[in-house]
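Dig into my protein:

:::
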Amino acid sequence: MTGAGRLSTAARAIVAGDRRALARAITAIENGDSAAEPVLRSLYPRTRGIPVVGFTGPLGVGKSSLINALVGLLRDRGRTVGIVAVDPSSPFSGGSVLGDRIRLDRPADDTGIYFRSMASRGAAGGVAAATLEIARLLDAAGFDFVLVETVGSGQVDVAIREIASTSIVVLVPHLGDEVQTLKAGMFEIADVFCVNKSDLPGADLARKDLADLVSLGRAEGRWAPAIVLTSTVEPMGIDGLWRAVEAHEKFLDDSGERRAGERRRLANEIVGLVRDRVGRDLTARLEADPKLRSLLDRVVARSLDPRAAAEQLLIRGRRAR
């Protein structure tokens, strides 16, 4: 289903601003419910490619407070914001552990904000597998920006790159984060470095260290990550942080990097969806299909290794086509 005249009932409700319909659709996406598919398909042509700003960094650096401050700034400017906070999963219920950690300092009836906390459910990189689709849904719902906060899982928290058009790595003084960035791989994903809690001693030194790292890794014609000092206590630097985001978003448009990044992300998404579906199908068939069960039995008996078994499955798949 595509086009404005062929939207499903749920999709029409989402476009009309029905937050309950939006919440139900997001829940369906999280749960892998097939009911979400017609909604996503019919709304995809309505997406505009709005800026998706990702926040990552170690636990305790104040990502949630920064997002709260930025939401206030954007709402004061009349812009609407969707926020997705990806939390660690409970080992018991599978639900979000820290779902209430962001407390938005806005009126309860402010319809220009939509907040959703969701569980990572073991997804690598601190980002739930459904986050990209949820950001796309918020785009189709008419929001101006989407802000995504990850669980802060350190070295593997680089999957935000597959979701965000602008990635902000949040650090604080005196934790050695600015030195560990290269080792953690976050240097490669940062479009903006934010030294938060800069009211504490050592903020200027952290900025200098980061500037040295940026200058070493800078390539001609490529974006040089901005470095911004912020504090949500005083507060300070929030305007500067958003200006850095706007500057990077403008660079993406002017350089053609936005289209290239979108093609890369969509290619990865398509491959990931195919991999997931084929994997689920094969997992079920390995026990249900007698021929495949026999193949698995040979691997269990050590008469066939897993790589050879996988190759045989690929050959059978090619013949079936």
In short: The longest strand covers residues 81-87. The chain is about 45% helix and 10% strand. The chain has three domains: 1-46, 47-254, 264-320. Residues 264-320 form one domain.
